[in-house]
Every structure is written in C-alpha cells, then in structure tokens.
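batch_manifest entry 22 of 60
target: AraC family transcriptional regulator
source organism: Sphingobacterium detergens
requested by: lab member K.T.
priority: normal
notes from requester: please return tokens only, no post-processing; we will run our own comparison against the previous entry in this batch. if the run fails, retry once and flag.
--- input ---
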Amino acid sequence: MGLRLYDIDSASLLLEKNYPQTFFSIDAGIQECVTQLGAPFGDGYYKEIFFDGIHIGFGHANLYERILFRFESDFETVEMHFALKGRSRAAGETLAATIDFETCQHNILYGNSICGQMQWEREEFQLCEINLSPDFFKKFLPDNSILFNDFRNIIEKGKSGLLTDINRRITHEMHALIDSIINCERKGVFKKIFLEAKIMELLLLQLEQLADNSVSNTTLRKPDVDKIYAVREFLLDNMDSNNTLVNLAHLVGTNEFTLKKGFKELFGTTVFGFWNDAKMEHAKKLILDKNMTIGEVSDAIGYKNQRHFSDAFRRKFGFPPSKLKKTYS
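--- output ---
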C-alpha cells in the first residue's frame, strides 16, 4: 500500500509513502509519523496517525509558488476531507470529474487506486483528511437517502468520486472537533479512544449537513466570507486581546453589520458568544493539560479580574475552574 508523488515536468519521484498492511487492520496499535516540507516548495509539515482502520493526516505549509505534481495510490479508502486554508485541484483518468477545494470547505470522497494531477495554489495551506476503510465507513452510512445510496453504489462498483458535487462549509462545531483531533496530547490507548470518538462525532456532523438539502452554503459574497473567517482566526490567535465589533470589522476591511450578520449565518452564534466559548474551552485545556494556576489562565485569556473569569467559567460549564483543578489533581 503506497502513495507516490512525481514532478510533473521531469517525472522524477518527489515522495514515496509506503503504508503497512496494518493501515486498515483492527487492533494494530497506534503509529505516528511526520513528513517535513522544505525548499523548493515551501515550509511546513504533514503529520499522520493511523490505528484500527483509521488514518488521520493533517498539515500546514506556506507554499513559495503554485505546486503541480502527479500522484499515484494503490489502495482503497473513504476520505473525510477538510480544506482549512488554501485552494487545491485534483484531476485524473480515474476520477469522474475534477475535484476542487477552497478555504473552509469539506466533503467526503471515495478513492480506489487513484492517479492523476494535483495542484496547490501559492499561499498558506492547511488541511485535515481522515481516511476510513470502505467497510468501516459503510456501517455508518444512512440507507434512506438517494444521495447516500448513490455513494454506496460508487463504493461497491469501485469508482472514485465525491459524495456530493457541492462542497459544504466547515462549521464552527467541525472546526472545534478538528482542533481537538490535531492538538490531542493523550498517549496510547487513551489517544485511540479519544480520536475515534471525535472522528465519529465529526463524521456525524458531516453526514447530517450533507443530508440536509435545505442548507445553502451562504448568502454572503465570497470576499465577505473570507473576511469573517479571518475574524474567527484572529480571535482564536489573540485570546488575551480586547476588541469591539467595530475594530474587528475594520481589521478585515468590512463593516459591523456584515460581520454580525455573516458570523451568525456561518457559525450559528454571535461574534462574542463564539469568542467567550473559545476562551472557556481554551482555559479548560490550559488547566487540564498545562497545569496552570487559575490566575495564570485568567491572564492568558485576557481577564484582568480573576473573579470575573471564574464567574464566566461557571456560566459555561456549571462549576468554577477551582473545582476542575481539584477533580483532576
């Protein structure tokens, strides 16, 4: 079982990944590896985790220029694909149609010994892809939908393709699950249990969204969508900052009305509702994983008053942060 990447002009081999037969075997233990990306393509990494019929791959890179290469794989898989940043395009003789992804889009695809060409645009690039064995995936595929029945038929006939022709937007809940998968610091069997649970929850969200024909991508223009996602990223990267709707809107070149309306439409919550939830989840992680004091956590997420932080934490979780420390100490 392997994946090979070739330079499109010289046909020289750029990368070869040989996966063990345990890739899709049950009770094979957890394995991890990291591939570094360097010159002349860009600066970044791609990390892989595989266990019990599941393969997780996630990467982040800054590409120096547009990359075009040929790829070949010799295995069968169902892939939950999440394009977190950047644009890509795949086309080939074993694909029924070109597959395009843009920032914050997702879909589910089936691949059976795919080969073709892949193009990544020159820009920041981040993705998460979760591969499942077809037999494992089909156990969770609903059988009362034309859409899902068509995809099941694609798998059974061994023809590569997407579950749906239209990619969907990655929701706030999906982002949170992907973040927890990427940043999981557990070890051994506890890591396997945690990752499998999060993957099943993520698959549930994907299938529910894809099954809902009433869900439209958005009424917003693409430039406005990009700006709203930029605000989301800024908030997550600047937990300890103080912001107003006006300065957040001006930061990305939009107005307060568009930011409020768009944020609610894309993420189902207000800007500051999202930010407060993100702060509390981050605080919980700092307490549990970093063993920081309540005061240190309060400062890290921008609270000048430790009591105010404790009150906000209690409203979110139903108990104060001090109880969390005692429970897990």
